[in-house]
Amino acid sequence: MTATTDLVSYEEALATYDPVMGLEVHVELGTRTKMFCGCSTELKQDANSQTCPTCLGLPGALPVVNEIGVESAIKIGLALHCEIAEWCRFARKNYFYPDMPKNFQTSQYDEPIAFDGYLDVQLEDGEVFRVEIERAHMEEDTGKSTHVGGATGRIHGASHSLLDYNRAGIPLIEIVTKPIEGAGERAPEVAKAYVAELREVIKSLGVSEARMDKGQMRCDVNLSLRPNGTEKFGTRSETKNVNSLRSVERAARFEIQRHAAVLNSGGTIVQETRHFHEEDGSTTSGRIKDNAEDYRYFPEPDLVPVAPAREWVEALRAELPELPLAQRNRLIEEWDISAHDMQSIRNAGAIGPIVATINAGADSTSARKWWMGELARSANEQQVELGALPITPEQVARVSELVAKGDLNDKLARQVIDGVLKGEGTPDEVVDKRGLKVVSDEGALNTAVDEAIAGNAGIVAKIQSGKVAAAGALVGAVMKATRGQADAARVKELILEKLGVSEG
Ligand SMILES: [Zn+2]
Known about the structure:
By secondary structure, this protein is an alpha+beta fold. The protein has helices at residues 10-16, 67-79, 187-205, 245-264, 310-318, 324-335, 339-347, 351-359, 364-372, 374-382, 393-404, 410-421, 427-434, 442-454, 457-464, 471-481, 488-499, and strands at 17-28, 83-84, 91-94, 104-107, 114-122, 128-140, 144-148, 160-164, 171-177, 217-227, 237-242, 272-277, 282-288, 298-299.
C-alpha cells in the first residue's frame, strides 16, 4: 500500500539531517472505576453495559474526579522527577468523534498535574540517555468503534459501524516529552528505549499493567528533520497509536527516511498525523494535524480544580518504589553478572519473575537459570510473556529447592516444570504423579551400576585402559535403567570408584 512512498537510505538521511523527536505516550490506568463516574473499567462485559449518563455524555450528568486516578498521576509525575502542580484544572478539548458522545474530551490543557521532569533511559549497549519530560496530564479514553462489513476492518468499505462506550471515560495519563535532540542516528533506538523504560516505571508503580499488546499503553511518535548543524526545527509528522516497542523504533526510522526523501527532492513536509503499518513498517497519511486553537480548549466548568495537598504529595514521594534503572544497577552487583547479561534478562521480561523467585527462597543463580532457560523457551514457543506462564515464582523456587536437596536432578526438574506448565499441579504433585525422584538409595544405585559394568565388558576395558570419557556410555546405561532418575554425577563417581579409575 505504500510502494509509492519514496525513501532514502537511513545512512544517507543521517548524513544530511538531524532528527528531532517528541514522544507522547498514553497510559490507561488500572483503576477499578472510570475517571469521572463510578462505572466499572472491566472490559470483558457486553458492549455498552458499563455506561451511565456521565460517560454517555447525557445532558445534565455531572462528572466527579476519581481520587485514585489523581493519585496515580501524581505517582507517575514523581517517578518522572516532575514538579507536581499545587493547583490545576481539567479542560474541555472540543472535537467531534462518533465514539466520544460528549463531543469533547475531558483533558488538561495549560495546567497539567505534573511538568518539567526527566527519565534516564538505557540503550542496548548500556549507555544512558536523558529524556526531558514536558508534562504528564490526566484525561479520559474514548469509546470503541467497530467497522463491520469491509475486508480490512477499517471504515472504508464497511457497511455499518458499531459503537461500544464501555471504554469511554477510562482514565488515561498522557506523558509528553520535550523535543529529544542530540540522539542522531540512535534516535529510533532512543525512542524504543524510552517507551521501554517508561513502561517499566509505570509497572513498578503498580498504576497500570501497561500492556502495549492490550492497548493499555500506546505511543505517538513526532518526528522532524533539520539540516545537520542547524538549530531550527523542521516540520513534524505525528505517527499515531504505535503499539509495540519494536514498532516505535521502526516508525521513527521510516519517518526519518521518508522526511529525508521529501526534503532532498525539494518538497515540504506536511504537518499531519500518520498511521503505522505493522506488516511492512511503513506509515501513511492520516489527517492534516489540527492546531491547539482548533480544539477551542476551555476550563471544564463541571469539575472543581485539583489542588493536591503538599503532605499528600510528599507521602506519595516517600512511598515511591526503587525505580527500574536503579534496580537493574543494584541487581548487576548483587547477582554478580555483566551489564550485557542484565540486558538479556530485561529483554526477556525476566527481572520481575527472577526477583520474586529469589524472594520465595531460591538462590539467584538457579532462579536465573530456570527463568532464562526452560521457562523463556516455553514462553517464546507460546508467544506469551514470562509472567503469563501458568507457573508461579514460588513454584519455581520449590523446584530449585528440590534440586538443591538432591531430590531432583536438572533433567527431572525440567519434567516437573513441564508438568506444572501443563496444569498437572504443584511441583510436589507433579513429582508424585509422574514418579519423578532421583534414586538416591545407594543400594539401588549400586545394583544398577554393577549391572551396567557386568553387561558392558568392552566399555569397561576401555575405561580401565585410561579412556575415562568412555564412562559416559555406562552412565547412560545406568540412567536408562533408572528411568533418568539417578544423579548422573553420583553415578559416574560410583562407576570410577568400582573400576578403581581416577577422574584425571
Ligand atoms: Zn459511567
